[in-house]
Structure formats: C-alpha cells, structure tokens
Amino acid sequence: MSAAYQAREPSRADTVYEQLKRDIAEFRLLPGDRFTEATICTQQQVSRTPVRQALFRLRQEGVVEVHFRSGWEVKPFDFEKFDHLYDLRILLESTAVQRLCQAKSKEIVQGGDLSVLTAQAQIWMVPESERCNDRSQVAVWDEEFHLALVQAMGNPEMLRVHRDVTERIRSVRRLDFTLQDRIQATYTEHTRILSALLAHDVATATALLLSHIQASQAQVRSITLHQIHQARRLAAT
After folding, report:
1. Do 136 and 109 fall into the same domain?
2. Which domain, by its residues, includes 177?
3. Are 106 and 196 in the same domain?
4. Buried residues in 45-65 as b, exposed as e (16+ CB within 10 A)
C-alpha cells in the first residue's frame, strides 16, 4: 500500500492535544485552572511547538483561552451551550431509536446492526451482582451505548455529528458518575431502553430514552463547584 493511503501517524501535537482533552474530561484540569506552556512541556516531555499547536487547537474548539503574559486557562462551563448540545443529542438518538424500532429485524441483521445492540445488551442487561462499579469504565460504556444507538441506524453523517456532540459534553456528562446511585440508575435505564428497542416498541423506547437523557441534562444544569472538585478528588484516587 502506498504512503498516500496509509493512516497518518499521530504527531506530537496530536498526542499532547489528546492528553489535554483527557485531563479536562477526567477532571485533572478543572474550569478556571491556569497553567503555562512550560508546565505542559515538562509534564509531557515535549518541546514548546507541539504544545502550542495543541493549545491553539483547543482554543479554536472553545475549551481553553490564553491570557497575555499569564498563560492558559481552562474555560468555565458554558451551560447554555451544553443545554443546546443535549437538545441536539435528543434529536439524533430519538430519530435513531424510532427508525430501529420501525425497521424489520431482518433488515437490521442484513446491515450488521443487530450485533451492535446485542453487544450492548451483554454489558447492560446483567444481574445486579455483576454490574461494574468502576466510575471511569461505566462512563466509557455509557458513551458507547448511546453511540451504538446511532451507529445501528447506519447513517454515517448522523454518527459523525453524534460523535462530535459526545466529545463536547464529555466532561460534564462524566460528573453523573461521581454518584453511585447514578451508576445503578444508568444500568436500569439502559436495560429498559434496550428491552423496548429489541422488542420494536417504538413508543416505549422513545419515551424511556427521552427520560434518560433529560435526567442527565437536568444533572448538568445543577452542577456545583463542589461536585467538580469532588470529581477531581475521585479521579486522583
């Protein structure tokens, strides 16, 4: 295979960018935290050029901002933006669920989509004694569950938009999983959604999905500074 068709190797700037995004999503860097390029260079053992490239990329995405002569800052949460992104997420996932319920099961099998949902059932539809209590792992599985709903529908453009939304709400969404009862609720709600979806019960599946996402959206609206710092303490342990 020629070099033109080979996957591009991630650059040092890409690596720094991904690590900074993880640090923000996993609360090692909190809204309002300030840092310098030199600090990131030391932490990631790279030169200033890739660090600067990564930071300016994050700045374009509205994640950080630069202060003249005083370094960089993680931008405060924009709750109005999060609210709009949750509304978009509801539209995408509701459409996916409705189309999946209305499709004939054989059509889903031919498209290879039923296996995506079956894989999710193996994670979520388990006895309570077998449920995972690892907050980080459940948060990752939660993202994969909702992506799978859109993926199963087979519309790559909707999936691309959904992935972008997922990236942009990741940090606040993971605050859900600082509470143990939210983890248990997620298992219960995902199981009910999957059961209705696999039974092609469009009204029930849509109503359950809407309630599930709106509960998360309500949690975002009520985020406090205490919760954010609690999330950092949990991430550190």
Report:
1. yes
2. 79-236
3. yes
4. ebeeebbbbbbebbeeeebbe
